[in-house]
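testing teh design pipeline on a random one, pls ignore if ur not involved
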């Protein structure tokens, strides 16, 4: 039984891959059926049909052969094949009595047209074929117009139209389901690519914040150590200790950030929490050790959501790094984090005058060499802060202060909405001094 079913499946698959061979086989089977039926006399309806009671004429055999041969092209020329078979069937009804069952080919051709065209075309062509052949059978046949043979023509042609339309509808339904599935698969792939791009951008921002902050501090402390190495070795040793601490902190944060790229189950996955306002004191201490006085006013630092807490910390880190790099000697900074209703406001102020020759809106290349601009050489600091804040649905403004200095102000919603697209205009003028 299994062998039989597998053989039938292989034959069906082969015929589906070779439609012309399938149509030729169908045409041959139809010709055999028409010839066998032409030897059958249906009788008067009171007894069973008698096989061999009549013999088809040569003209009828010729018509049956022509209509069967036309079915070979039913997929390529469905309308033409229907017209040929219907015309030959009408000729059979007009000239031959009793007629041979040439209409079988017309039924198959009508089914093909209905399954390959739209419904209005099926209705028009089907009604025309049904009406024409039924009228020819009733008018030119020797049997009464109400005989079952005449109504059989009407029934079989109507059934062919309905069956073809049903098959066409089912194919359209299956194609629509397949298209929706393919579209859903493409949408999932695009969503996965979008999430990967967002994750890469987020990790890039974290790497920038970590590297720019710590390497700037290392640069400053190394410069101090080199300056006082000969005259004040104790102060140089202290500066080198700060360099060691800053580099160790940079390595630890880089290890945590890069650890996010590990696959599940990889060994030594990082377990340290992301930095936040809870360690703001340690961050400020590193800047104070680098010679930047910083005053802090922070309230409710432990009540912020994790995403907002991290964003606030990174904004403060980047802003203070820019102050240390660009505000000039003698600059001071003020940091405040306050809760205002459903938002948290982060503000970083400084009173610096900026690097020599630097003006708001210019790129870092305008400043003097050697001030550490290489880490922030494209103005990515403010861009990264703005992207981080707007990703949470907040707003960032950055620009010169009236009377001198610079101001960075971020408004973060307490209920973070991560993953929303950046809305134009949410980050106000940046005044790219940094």
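output:
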């Amino acid at each position: 039984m299994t062998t039989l079913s597998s053989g039938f499946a292989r034959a069906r698959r082969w015929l589906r891959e070779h439609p012309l061979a399938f149509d030729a086989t169908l045409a041959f089977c139809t010709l055999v059926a028409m010839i066998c039926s032409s030897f059958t006399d249906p009788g008067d309806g009171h007894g069973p049909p008698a096989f061999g009671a009549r013999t088809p004429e040569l003209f009828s055999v010729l018509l049956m052969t022509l209509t069967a041969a036309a079915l070979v092209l039913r997929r390529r020329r469905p309308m033409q094949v229907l017209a040929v078979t219907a015309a030959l069937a009408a000729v059979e009804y007009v000239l031959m009595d009793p007629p041979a069952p040439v209409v079988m080919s017309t039924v198959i051709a009508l089914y093909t047209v209905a399954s390959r065209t739209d419904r209005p075309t099926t209705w028009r062509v089907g009604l025309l074929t049904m009406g024409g052949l039924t009228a020819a059978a009733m008018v030119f046949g020797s049997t009464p117009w109400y005989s079952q043979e005449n109504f059989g023509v009407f029934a079989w042609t109507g059934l062919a139209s309905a069956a073809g339309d049903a098959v066409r509808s089912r194919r359209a339904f299956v194609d629509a389901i397949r298209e929706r599935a393919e579209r859903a698969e493409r949408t999932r792939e695009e969503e996965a690519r979008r999430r990967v791009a967002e994750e890469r951008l987020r990790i890039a921002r974290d790497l920038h914040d970590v590297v720019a902050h710590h390497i700037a501090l290392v640069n400053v402390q190394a410069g101090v150590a080199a300056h006082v190495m000969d005259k004040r070795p104790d102060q140089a040793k202290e500066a080198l200790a700060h360099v060691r601490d800053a580099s160790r902190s940079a390595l630890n944060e880089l290890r945590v950030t890069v650890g996010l790229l590990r696959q599940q189950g990889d060994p030594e996955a990082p377990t340290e929490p992301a930095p936040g306002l809870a360690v703001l004191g340690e961050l400020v201490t590193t800047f104070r050790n680098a010679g930047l006085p910083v005053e802090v006013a922070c309230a409710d630092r432990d009540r912020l959501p994790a995403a907002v807490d991290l964003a606030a910390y990174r904004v403060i880190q980047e802003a203070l790094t820019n102050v240390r790099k660009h505000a000039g000697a003698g600059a001071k900074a003020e940091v405040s984090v306050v809760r205002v209703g459903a938002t948290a406001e982060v503000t970083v102020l400084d009173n610096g005058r900026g690097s020599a020759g630097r003006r708001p809106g210019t790129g870092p290349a305008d400043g003097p060499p050697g001030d550490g601009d290489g880490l922030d050489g494209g103005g990515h600091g403010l861009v990264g802060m703005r992207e981080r804040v707007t990703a949470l649905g907040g707003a960032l403004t950055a620009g010169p202060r009236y009377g001198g200095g610079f101001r960075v102000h971020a408004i973060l919603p307490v209920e973070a909405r991560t993953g929303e697209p950046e809305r134009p205009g949410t980050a106000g003028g940046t005044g790219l001094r940094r």
